[in-house]
Amino acid sequence: MGKGLYFKRFYRVSPKAHLKVSTILHEIIIGSMLGDLTVEKPNLNCNARIQFKQSIINKEYIEHLYELFQEFCGSKPLVMSKFENRPNKNKEYSAIKFQTLSLPCFNIYRELFYNSEGQKILPPNLEDLLTVKGLAY
Q1: What is the pTM of this model?
Q2: In this predicted model, what pLDDT tens digit does every residue of 77-135 receive, in sequence order?
Q3: How far apart are the first and last CA of the chain?
Q4: Is there a smaller number of Cβ atoms within 10 Å at the N or the C end of the chain?
Q5: Crossing angle (nearest 10°) for helices 23-33 and 59-69
Q6: Burial code of 59-95, b = ≥16 C-beta within 10 A, e = fewer?
Q7: Consecutive H or E run containing 67
Q8: CA-to-CA distance for 135 and 80, rounded, in angstroms?
Q9: Considering Cα of 56, then 59, then 65, then 69, what sign does the dihedral take?
């Protein structure tokens, strides 16, 4: 390398990084966190993403949620199947899921609902966060 040359690292920023969660979507996220909604953050340097996953029986519900969160997503809901071959099971299970992109607006939910070990917890101020709409979801 020549004298005075240096490398500059460029980071790709999502064109959706500016998105904010509306009040209604915030309420839905808070209520859904009481169920099986997950917030993933692979490492400390990443933004969080939200994953909605349900049995295929709830396909219409997941499609409804996807319509609400579509602008935060990079792909449509995905149907997955797995065969459970444990004794007394021998059954195929199907699920449907979608996840948002990893965005700064979802970091707060990871901080609220997960401890430092990555275990899901209830935030101490849950009664201030939970609304009727959130509870309905």
Answers
A1: 0.82
A2: 999 988 777 677 777 889 999 999 999 999 999 999 999 999 999 999 999 999 999 99
A3: 58
A4: N
A5: 140
A6: eeebeebbeebeebbeeebeeeeeeeeeeeeeeeeeb
A7: helix 59-69
A8: 27
A9: positive
